[in-house]
Amino acid sequence: MIEVDDVTKRYGRTTAVHGLSFTVAPGQVTGFLGPNGAGKSTTLRMVLGLTSPTSGTVTVGGRRFRGLPRGLCEVGALLDAGDAHGGRTARAHLAALARGNGLPRRRVDEVLAQTGLTSVAGRRVGGFSLGMRQRLGIAGALLGDPPVLLFDEPLNGLDPEGIRWVRGLFRRLADEGRTVLVSSHLMREMEHTAQRLIVIGRGELIATGTLAEFAAADTTTDVSVRTPDPAALATALGGPGVEVRVEDDGSCAVTGLTARRIGDLALLHRIPLHGLTPRRASLEETFMGLTSDSVEYGSGNAR
Ligand SMILES: Nc1ncnc2c1ncn2[C@@H]1O[C@H](COP(=O)(O)OP(=O)(O)OP(=O)(O)O)[C@@H](O)[C@H]1O
């Protein structure tokens, strides 16, 4: 369990995280979503104990950060796939990590097997593709067999097979009762990865909920209407809160009315309809709508 309680983190005049509170429960994969610069990495670093909050508290398994980074047996993390020394082999990299953390050597072979790297364990990391580096980073996170796992943009650079594998692994880790937090700036990456979402923007919480709740909460539905007389339709439907937009393909996108009401009004005004299709916003569109105020934020802006 991770609990972030009213956390603010400032770097000089930049506020990276502001009054952020959320909890991450074990047993499911939680997506941590936000546009670039939203404060995801900063938050993950605070959970790991690599950075201390300016104010507020972060607890992992009920324990507060006490000025020392959390050990590999407590929290495993993939923060930056590029941080392994390029001149070392994958096995040597993991062996050094294991030694430094007092972990048994056998864990190295176990995590190499778990991440599909056994056959390349003797190769230098410098020659690894980004996907292999991601696997190695994940192997490092698993080394201490920790109950809490953090992955910062782990799908970056993975091919479709790699993405499928990572998704399966995260699910298995969550099914084992672990707390799994995965960051991304792309909703489409989270759609088939996470069961719950935490969405942040400009360092602040925007929304939390299950994926199903996000899908159900999209109120920005519109209705696509085909008619030979869009102008008459717009006049007939016009009113407060109703918008009729003619799309490039000649159809009309109507917001603010149900398909049934549009049909009734068209009949009343004797306007022929050739099509009437209610449309739901995709999760990606819901995310864009939620974070649209946050994306203009350029890194380094003072708030
Ligand atoms: N060490 C630092 N010193 C100064 N500013 C920082 C530092 N770390 C992060 N920031 C700033 O804090 C804000 C949040 O950055 P952070 O990297 O946490 O966002 P992010 O959501 O992880 O973004 P991205 O997806 O681009 O990695 C940005 O404006 C960033 O420039």
From TrEMBL:
PROSITE patterns hit by this protein: ABC_TRANSPORTER_1 (PS00211), ABC_TRANSPORTER_2 (PS50893)
Domain of life of the native organism: Bacteria
Entry keyword set: ATP-binding, Nucleotide-binding, Transport
Pfam families: ABC_tran
GO molecular function, one term: ATP binding
Family recorded in the similarity comment: Belongs to the ABC transporter superfamily.
Protein name according to UniProt: ABC transporter
